[in-house]
Amino acid sequence: MKIVGEESYPDCIKSLPEAKISLPGVQGWVAQGNEFQIVFFEIEPIGSIPPHSHKAQFGIVFEGEMMLTMGEETKLYKKGGTYYIPEGVVHRAEFSTFFRAMDFFSENNRYETE
Predict the structure, then answer these.
(1) What 3-state DSSP class applies to 14?
(2) How many structural domains is the chain composed of?
(3) HSE on the CB side for 83, CA within 13 Å?
(4) Whole domain around residue 56: which residue ranges?
(5) DSSP assignment of 15-65, as one string?
């Protein structure tokens, strides 16, 4: 599936292993470390991702917008914005535009790869 945005990740990112993500319209490429994963996401305007939790996550927005709800607080994140989700905090996201971001996960097995 090809996702079209203002820009695209360069070949050095798109040559990384692709994450196995069961949500249609969501793609990610994984840089794997011993204790972490960095995932370069491209997300179509798919609406909401259901509430969930996992280990800590830090991200930076490259393109588009995301409404992120952590606990009872909702905030809009745009290009250049950063977010931090502490371990175990239930959160959900909503995407109404094409979205690209890089997320650091403090676990080495957040996503399996193709």
Answers:
(1) helix
(2) 1
(3) 25
(4) 23-88
(5) TSPBB---STTEEEEEEE-SS-EEEEEEE-S-EEEEEE--S-EEEEEEES-
Q: Which of 81, 85, 75, 113 is nearest to 100 (CA)?
A: 81
Which candidate, 104, 96, 17, 20, places its Cα nearest to that of 60? Answer: 104
- Tell me, yes or no, whether 97 lies in a domain: no
Distances (CA, A) of 74 to 18, 69, 71, 91: 29, 4, 8, 9
Question: Mind listing the pLDDT tens digit for each residue in 62-98?
Answer: 999 999 999 899 999 999 999 999 999 999 999 999 9
- Domain assignment present for residue 5? The answer is no
Residue 96 counted as domain residue: no
pLDDT in tens, 23-45: 999 999 999 999 999 999 999 99
43 bridge partner residues: 26, 99
**44 within domain boundaries:** yes
What is the pTM (predicted TM-score) of this model?
Answer: 0.91
